[in-house]
Task: inverse folding
């Protein structure tokens, strides 16, 4: 009998040639850290579940849990910082400070997302304990690493966790709402709430003095870090985890890569959760992403890539960009990449013609910097995007519809009703919110046929005029979401080209 190996989602194996690439990059980083007097530390892969759940609740849904033989709940580590901080705090009396440590280890997170199913992520990073003035040292280490690795077209965006804590303290519920909106990448809603004459409009810029004045803060330490290199830029819209970070926070972004390559910051209060309190700061490179970036062909041309839908939203998108000085010919229906010359501060602009439902994917992963997509599609995709601008066309509503006269509202549908839709995630969440258990049937066209053929009891679909519904004996019984075409941006592109892209909002 022949047994075939089962491929577990998100668990990757590496061939010798692939492993050599990892080891080469890891060795380069380790040599840089050693030269800066950092020493290696090793932490077990299994940690006390309580450590993770108590000090880093944001990973509570991503933890691999298991029981020890004595019934103690353990977990695979989701971060290196927490277990290292606990060790240092508990054994502080036998250590000399400042203490500089580095590691080359894997972390484990249950992602459960189709767009990023990695469950084991190799990190190479450092932790620095016992000094409140080590921000510049750490940032210089990041810069030296980027130079030695040969990284190109990158930016290190910095902020201070004190900024958002001050916003929430000063503006209370309003400030917390803004924090959550920016954390979710919803700049459309942010700008609707923060009008032009509001002090918090300073968060849309990159002027440290303006933010200091708006919030009554002293950010001189941040200004010193900013002065280290042109590749370091101030981004007050960056939202660190304010339950963990206490000061400097930074992300390393590379053009064309949808996710952060390295991340770090100051977490001065974490060690006090375990034993002895002391200043601490650290960062880590995410090795798989780093390898991907280093293997990409890098161009010095400043290019903007825009994903547009080949469907009904195309004409309005082209009109919007034409008003911004970008014009391209779409006469060749087979051509998938259309050049639009220079504009908006870019040497070259390209339009990518894709299916509407694919726009969020292209933008999230960095294949496109911008995209025009319906709000319905953006929300249903679950993609991590920046919602940059409401383009005010393509108006419609996402609605629950059924045969005329059969149900008054969606709450009248029986439990376990079948709902046909092209928006399965929004549909599932909506019926969960109103307390109805339903079976969602995913369709990609002619959704109205669902109730007419007894495939479904109702549908969730976009409604503009309602003419098609009436002609087929259907009616709206509930409205879920008003929708328009929106401009979305890749998270890293938004950091690298912040001023250029905000000009489109």
Result:
């Amino acid at each position: 009998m022949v047994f075939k190996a089962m491929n577990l989602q998100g668990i990757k194996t590496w061939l010798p040639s692939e492993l050599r690439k990892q080891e080469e990059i890891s060795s380069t980083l380790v040599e840089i850290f050693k030269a800066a007097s950092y020493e290696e530390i090793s932490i077990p892969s299994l940690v006390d579940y309580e450590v993770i759940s108590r000090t880093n609740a944001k990973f509570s849904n991503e933890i691999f849990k298991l029981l020890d033989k004595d019934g103690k709940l353990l977990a695979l580590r989701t971060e290196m910082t927490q277990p290292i901080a606990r060790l240092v705090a508990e054994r502080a009396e036998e250590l000399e400070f400042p203490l500089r440590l580095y590691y080359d280890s894997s972390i484990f997170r249950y992602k459960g997302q189709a767009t990023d199913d990695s469950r084991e992520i190799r990190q190479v990073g450092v932790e620095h304990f016992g000094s409140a003035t080590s921000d510049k040292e750490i940032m210089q280490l990041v810069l030296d690493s980027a130079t030695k690795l040969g990284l190109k077209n990158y930016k290190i965006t910095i902020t201070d966790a004190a900024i958002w804590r001050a916003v929430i303290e000063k503006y209370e519920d309003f400030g917390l709402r803004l924090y959550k909106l920016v954390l979710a990448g919803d700049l459309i809603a942010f700008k609707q709430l923060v009008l032009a004459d509001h002090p918090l409009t300073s968060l849309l810029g990159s002027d440290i003095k303006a933010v200091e004045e708006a919030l009554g803060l002293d950010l001189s330490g941040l200004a010193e870090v900013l002065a280290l290199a042109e590749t370091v830029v101030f981004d007050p819209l960056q939202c660190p985890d304010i339950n963990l970070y206490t000061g400097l926070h930074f992300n390393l972004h590379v053009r064309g890569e949808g996710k952060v390559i390295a991340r770090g910051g100051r977490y001065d209060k974490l060690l006090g959760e375990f034993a002895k309190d002391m200043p601490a700061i650290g960062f880590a490179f995410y090795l798989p992403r780093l390898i991907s970036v280093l293997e990409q062909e890098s161009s010095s041309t400043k290019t903007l890539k825009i994903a547009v839908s080949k469907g009904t939203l195309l004409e309005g998108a082209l009109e919007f960009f034409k008003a911004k000085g970008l014009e391209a010919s779409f006469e060749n229906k087979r051509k998938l990449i259309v050049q639009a010359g220079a504009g908006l501060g870019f040497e070259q602009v390209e339009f990518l013609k894709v299916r509407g439902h694919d726009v969020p994917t292209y933008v999230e992963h960095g294949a496109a910097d911008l995209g025009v997509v319906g709000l319905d599609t953006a929300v249903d995709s679950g993609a991590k995007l920046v919602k940059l601008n409401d383009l005010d066309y393509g108006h419609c509503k996402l609605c629950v519809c059924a045969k005329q006269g059969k149900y008054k509202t969606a709450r009248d549908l029986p439990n376990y009703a079948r709902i046909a839709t092209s928006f399965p995630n929004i549909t599932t969440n909506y019926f969960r919110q109103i307390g109805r258990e339903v079976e969602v049937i995913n369709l990609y066209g002619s959704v109205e046929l669902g109730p007419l053929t007894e495939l479904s009891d109702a549908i969730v679909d976009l409604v503009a005029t309602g003419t098609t519904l009436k002609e087929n004996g259907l009616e709206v019984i509930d409205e879920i979401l008003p929708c328009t075409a929106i401009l979305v941006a890749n998270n890293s592109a938004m950091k690298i080209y912040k001023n250029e892209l905000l000009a489109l909002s």
